């Protein structure tokens, strides 16, 4: 039987690990709820270990890289090399996948577990069966939540709509990026029936921002997504 684990993926830019304290806080909250134990590795110590792994893997400094942190119920922790990016820092990714809405719920928790990750993979298979690349997860009432295991956001005019989605480090950062470029931020449900009135649909994770080209056949743009990506990366001064 595959062991249930919590996980986070940390972004490394120019050899420096980003947002480590925020990733620790998210894992600590989930571990206390699910495993009944704290996760307190020490920010500086964990940062050093992550950066040492990236160096050992010879990640190029010209582009970003990723390290996956997994936490088992008994407190065992594992750091895994998770590849490199095509970009230096957070960026608007060049691919714009087509998506299809898939309605499903997770048992017991929305925490970042390997179970949630497996459910995403299964939903993507259902989306592929319909001719799309990615699944947009929806609740039973049609409320949009996430895509590719990352929080989903929508753009309507000069407003960024943030549906209720599982907490993520980059989701929090994107809200700050939106404020910095003068977008109105509204935390409210976005439903399948709202898709035709939206301008853009996007999600954010350790890689940056991914803008969807279509969802359920409805086309979207990526102009604001590009501005958001620039503002997101601007939160991290060049070293």
Polypeptide structure, described:
The structure is a single chain. The chain is of the alpha+beta class and 239 residues long. It has five helices and 15 strands. The chain has helices spanning 20-34, 43-56, 114-129, 169-180, 223-234; strands spanning 6-13, 16-17, 65-71, 77-84, 91-92, 98-103, 134-138, 144-147, 150-156, 159-162, 184-187, 200-205, 208-211, 214-215, 218-219. The N and C termini lie far apart (44 Å).
**What's the end-to-end separation, in Å?**
44 Å
Shape: globular
Count of distinct structural domains: 2
| Structure classification | alpha+beta
Instruction: Note the beta-strand portion.
Output: 25-35%
How do the SSEs run, as a string of H and E?
Answer: EEHHEEEEHEEEEHEEEEEH
Unreliable runs, pLDDT <50, ≥5 residues?
none
> Roughly what percent helix?
25-40%
Report the biggest beta sheet as strand number plus sense, adding barrel if it closes: 11 strands, mixed
Name a few traits of the molecule.
single chain; 239 residues; alpha+beta; D-amino Acid Aminotransferase, Chain A, domain 1; D-amino Acid Aminotransferase, Chain A, domain 2; eleven-stranded mixed beta sheet; four-stranded antiparallel beta sheet; 15 strands; 29% helix; 30% strand; globular
Entry summary:
The chain is built from 5 helices and 15 strands. With 239 residues, the protein is an alpha+beta fold. It has 2 domains: 6-84, 2-Layer Sandwich (D-amino Acid Aminotransferase, Chain A, domain 1); 91-234, D-amino Acid Aminotransferase, Chain A, domain 2, CATH 3.20.10.
């Amino acid at each position: 039987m595959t062991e249930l684990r919590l996980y986070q993926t940390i972004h490394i830019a120019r050899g420096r690990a980003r947002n480590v304290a925020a990733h620790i806080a998210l894992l600590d909250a989930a571990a206390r709820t699910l495993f009944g134990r704290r996760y307190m590795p020490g920010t500086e110590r964990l940062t050093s270990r992550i950066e040492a792994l990236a160096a050992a893997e010879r990640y190029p400094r010209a582009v970003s890289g990723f390290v996956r942190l997994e936490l088992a119920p008994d407190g065992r922790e594992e750091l895994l090399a998770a590849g490199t990016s095509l970009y230096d820092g957070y960026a608007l990714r060049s691919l714009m996948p087509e998506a299809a809405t898939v309605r499903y719920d997770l048992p017991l928790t929305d925490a970042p577990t390997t179970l949630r990750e497996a459910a995403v993979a299964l939903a993507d298979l259902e989306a592929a069966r319909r001719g799309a690349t990615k699944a947009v997860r929806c609740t039973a009432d049609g409320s949009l939540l996430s895509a590719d295991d990352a929080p989903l956001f929508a753009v309507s005019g000069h407003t960024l709509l943030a549906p209720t989605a599982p907490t993520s480090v980059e989701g929090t950062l994107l809200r700050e990026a939106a404020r910095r470029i003068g977008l109105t931020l509204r935390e409210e449900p976005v439903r399948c029936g709202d898709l035709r009135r939206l301008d853009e649909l996007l999600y954010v994770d350790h890689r940056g921002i991914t803008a969807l080209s279509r969802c359920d056949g409805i086309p979207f743009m990526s102009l604001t997504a590009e501005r958001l990506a620039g503002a997101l990366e601007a939160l991290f001064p060049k070293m």
